[in-house]
Amino acid sequence: MRMRGGLRRALCATTAMAMALLLAVAGSAGCATSNPSNHRRPRALALASAALALGGSGVWVVGERRAEPGSMPAVGLGIVAVGIAGMIASGAWMAAQVSCQADPDCLETEECREIPAPPGGVPYKQCSPR
Asked: Per the structure, how many domains does the chain have?
């Protein structure tokens, strides 16, 4: 199915506007920043990687729809792969940061300290402000 030039441009412009709106909503919803900014950098990496994957998917689709796609679909696929790898890396980065600090019994503003017990006793944990 062949599209006319004007319809194709309008479709591409609509797709670009939808992508920009999606990125604006994701950024303002707290994906890139947070009040307790413990994980600002991994979240920013995740947002940038998601934008890269979204842009790569657009390149991939446009390449697939062309009469002579050339290497455009492969480039789009590569960009999507890099974006997904970045999202996985940001998740691992955030998990590594959280694993040392998180305690399900304490609030985020508190840390869990182990209180030693007398000989033969069982030590207990207490939440205290950071």
From this structure: 1
